[in-house]
Amino acid sequence: MRRDLSDVRVLDFCWVGAGSLVTQMLALHGADVIKIESHRRPDNLRLSPPSRPGVTSLDSSGYFASRNANKKSFALNMSDERSRPILRDLLEQCSVVTSNFRPGVMERWGLDYDSLKEKRPDLIYLSMPMQGEEGPFREYVGFGSTISALAGLVAPSGLPGRRPVGTGTNYPDHVPNPGHALVALLAAIYYRRRTGQGGRVELSQLESTVNMMGPSLLAYSVTGEEPVTEGNRSLERCPQGVFRCEGSDEWLAISVGTDEQWHRTGAVLGLSEGDVERSATFALRRAHEDEIETLIEAVTKDRDARELMAQLQREGVPASVVNTAADVFSDGVIVDRRFWRTLPHEVLGEFRVASPPFTWSGGDAGPTSSAPLLGEHTHELWTQLLNRPEEQFEHLQAEGVLW
User: Fold this and answer.
1) What is the residue-wise DSSP string for 48-79?
2) Residue 266 has pLDDT above 80, yes or no
3) DSSP E strands, 156-265
4) pLDDT (average), residues 301-306
5) I need a labelling partner for 119 at 20 to 30 A (CA). Which of 133, 233, 262, 275 fits?
6) Which domains does the chain have, with CATH numbers?
7) What's the rounded Cα separation, in Å, for the pair 217 and 239?
8) Do residues 363 and 28 touch, judged by C-beta distance below 8 A?
9) In terms of Cα–Cα distance, which of 53, 70, 50, 60 is closest to 325?
């Protein structure tokens, strides 16, 4: 199957969250991604749960395995000066360099963009510092939950009249930051294919996440009013919410976008004609939102969530059950799209890995190899890609340089 990035080789210094998802997406689309780490300084995600019960090693983290499929691991101790010439040889073989360290780390290793582009003018260089390479806060470090709070995502997240609950996960690590960085990298790769020129991509993770607050920021600039918690409601769709269904902790999400969808929703739920007509327009529905939600849940609480979802979807009304984590593995759409791929892993055993949520005709972007063990490909890359002697490998491994 065609993989459109098979001509790209990446030297990957990304670790933990957002950066690792970027380079995994490149790897799933055919790029040869070489992850640089060492036993002295492993990716922190290797230390993060969940892990296989009873197994304690740097290769037992399911979290790490979920973000590093299709990559290779080269164990190189960057604190040892003898790593520098090895790294230079690797760089000659790579056309993309990625990192999400704080400003200054790559520079101390002599890996800043200006130095590297002298040796490879067509190099594409991605850096992902939390608050950019310059400015008064450049040295600040953080992760998804920190960025969520700084960007303003936490305050409006929750139910009206209650304290904010946040996004429930490190949302910036999973969606806006890897998403923006990936699009920028793909644009740079496309541009290089057309012109032969490389370039530098700098992604401030805070700025990337603030972008998700665009409508609220625009509204504030016009009205001067701070955004409020809307819960599951929307300013463009009504009713929109999550409603209790029959059973223990069963819920159905419904999002009505047009007047016609509202009439069809009323018919499926068996609402009275008077109740439907009193809220026939969007303005009327917004004015009676509490009442409408009460009417809907009075019906849904005694109905099977999946049956009701199917009925609403047949009528063209956006609706979906709220899946549990276990349900995600058996959801019909996800199964049909082969989103989950099961791969063997030396430590974790059979392990499910997510595929990109988009496909194209004649191609496939599913994972073909599980996340690498730490240093799993060091010898292979040393002898085949770098074409260096076996004796030198054994010596540097014993000295802790290749370890």
Assistant:
1) PSPB-TT--STT-BHHHHHH-TT-EEEE--TT
2) yes
3) 199-202, 240-244, 251-255
4) 97
5) 133
6) 9-211+337-398 (3.40.50.10540), 240-329 (3.30.1540.10)
7) 24
8) no
9) 50
pLDDT level of residue 166 (50, 70, 90 thresholds): confident
Q: How many H helices and E strands in the chain?
A: 18, 11
Average pLDDT over every residue of 6-25: 94
Burial (CB count within 10 angstroms: exposed 0-12, middle 13-18, buried 19+), residue 398:
exposed
Q: Is the dihedral of CA 137, 103, 376, 18 positive or negative?
A: positive
The β-bridge relationship of strands 251-255 and 319-321 is antiparallel
Burial track 318-341 (b if 16+ CB lie within 10 A, e otherwise): ebbbeeeeeeeeeeeebeeeebbb
Q: What is the mean pLDDT of residues 205-228?
A: 90
Quick one: pLDDT at residue 2?
58
Q: Which two tokens stand for residue 114?
A: 């200006």
Q: What is the largest CA-CA distance in the chain?
A: 85
Average pLDDT across the chain, whole number = 93
| Predicted TM-score (pTM) above 0.70 | yes
Question: Per-residue pLDDT averaged across 138-154, rounded?
Answer: 89
Give, as one character, the DSSP assignment of residue 259. H
pLDDT tens figures, 337-380: 889 999 999 999 999 999 987 766 777 788 999 999 999 999 99
Number of CB atoms found within 10 A of residue 171's CB:
21
User: Pseudo-torsion of CA 258, 263, 267, 269, nearest 10°?
Assistant: 60
Cβ atoms 375, 381 nearer than 8 A: no
The token pair that represents 204 in the structure block: 């401030």
Q: Is 195 helix (H, G, I), strand (E, B) or coil?
A: helix
Reduced to 3 states (helix: H, G, I; strand: E, B; else coil), residue 345 is strand
CA distance 185 to 315: 40
Residues in the chain: 403
CA distances from 175 to 67, 99, 170, 297, 331 (A): 13, 17, 9, 31, 21
Tell me the residue ranges of DSSP E strands in 148-278.
199-202, 240-244, 251-255
**Residues identified as active-site:** 173
* Mean pLDDT, range 202-224, rounded to an integer: 92
pLDDT tops 90 at residue 95: yes
DSSP state of 384: I
Cβ of 237: how many Cβ atoms within 10 Å? 18
pLDDT at 327 over 80: yes
